[in-house]
Design goal:
Length: about 400
């Protein structure tokens, strides 16, 4: 048996030697290339910063600049926040950026940017709300008129955040008496705040500031900033709130954010949150999620966006009527929002920020931002299984809340 094996082995030796020689040649070529690249790298970067290796030739390519204004602004931010490009800018300084990245706008981002009319081709034909938004799109700093710096001192389990307008006194009061009642609910601490901007005579609003100041002293739940409170500035309201949250309420575990015309089943929300694991709760963002959507081009629609401003698909986003997220995620959204250009539709903007974080909002059947079927709207038991429904008047909120809280109501 031994001699037979030796004969077989000997018969295959020439083929083995050929394979061995070929393998050795490939290894030698690879070693030579590695040495050559290493020497070239060192010679090209003798004066570079210590510990940072930067190739002598640019290994990245800027994408073609978009003709749409928002997309172009976002491309600029993406370049500025690209860590590879930053390494070249601050490490080697040999990079030459294209002209469109050289920012010639006003040094103060809150000054009107009068480059915009020249960069948006149909600027003069756009609705006034668009012109105003585009002129001040870079401004994110507005003075705070009313603050509640200690409202979260007890580290609430759930923070209810309600977007409101100055004249909506009745809506805020109905919420305070129903689903937004602060204190302890189902053995969990709940805090409510209302977000407001300022009204202007330009928008045909009477001066209600003194009444609002009185309301703030009475209830201690209003947050107000000095900016024009319009539909397109809802995104600004979102950004300012996230900044406030990071400063004054970073220990709140969860946030329910909604409009002042939604009805929220706070008990259902708390019950859902109590059943979450820590891992699931960290990245929580649920609501009535919209997917595969894009900008409306019909000029008569409220959500009209011209091609000169934005092109492309929207990322998945939760309808702005209301959604639920973790406090941890809110802080991350606040940070990443600095890398996303303000967009005139607030819920889409939040979806853009989530996309930057690599997250997708989760659809939950309990969020009905497009209401429920009319035949079920007067059924008390339906509301016990829902988390949020849009829209309801102050009178309807006061009618529905007892259906949620009264134990004698039996629902099978």
């Amino acid at each position: 048996m031994v001699s037979a094996f030796s004969e077989i082995q000997g018969a295959h030796m020439p083929l083995g030697r050929k394979k061995g020689k070929a393998l050795c040649m490939l290894m030698m070529i690879n070693i030579f290339i590695c040495v050559l690249v290493g020497v070239s790298w060192k010679l090209g970067h003798k004066g570079g910063p210590k510990g940072i290796r930067i190739p002598s030739k640019r290994f990245w390519h800027l994408t073609l600049v978009s003709k749409s204004f928002w997309n172009k602004e976002q491309q600029r931010l993406d370049v500025i926040n690209n860590p590879l490009i930053n390494a070249e800018l601050f490490g080697g300084s040999f990079i030459s950026l294209p002209d469109w990245l050289n920012d010639t706008g006003p040094l103060d981002p809150c000054e009107a940017d009068y480059r915009v009319p020249m960069q948006v081709l149909d600027y003069n034909t756009l609705p006034k709300r668009f012109q105003d938004f585009l002129l001040h799109m870079r401004c994110r700093m507005y003075p705070m008129l009313i603050n509640q710096p200690h409202v979260c001192d007890k580290k609430p389990f759930l923070l209810l955040v309600v977007k409101s307008l100055m004249p909506h006194f009745d809506r805020r009061q109905a919420i305070r008496q129903t689903w937004g009642r602060a204190g302890f609910l189902a053995n969990r601490s709940v805090v409510t705040v209302f977000l407001l901007g300022s009204t202007s005579s330009v928008d045909n609003f009477p001066d209600l500031q003194e009444m609002l100041n009185h309301e703030a002293k009475l209830h201690k739940d209003l947050l107000q900033w000095d900016y024009r409170d319009t539909f397109f500035n809802l995104t600004l309201k979102e950004v300012l709130f996230l900044e406030w949250f990071s400063t004054y309420c970073p220990h709140a575990q969860y946030i329910l954010k909604g409009d002042d015309d939604v009805f929220v089943n706070t008990l259902q929300i708390i019950g859902f949150l109590r059943g979450l694991s820590k891992g699931k709760g960290k990245d929580l963002f649920i609501g009535d999620v919209i997917k595969n959507a894009g900008p409306h081009r019909n000029t008569k629609l409220k959500y009209f966006i011209p091609e000169s401003v934005f092109v492309g698909q929207y990322p998945p986003y939760a309808g702005g009527g209301g959604y639920l997220l973790s406090g941890d995620l809110a802080i991350r959204l606040s940070n990443i929002s600095q890398q996303v250009v303000l967009y005139p539709i607030d819920d889409v903007y939040t979806g853009m920020c989530l996309e930057k974080l690599g997250l997708v909002p989760e659809k939950h059947p309990g969020f009905r931002t497009f209401d429920i079927e009319e035949k079920y709207r007067d059924n008390p038991c339906i509301y016990r299984s829902l988390m949020l429904v849009h829209s309801r008047t102050p009178q309807e909120m006061l009618e529905i809340w007892p259906w949620i809280t009264h134990p004698e109501l039996s629902c099978q």
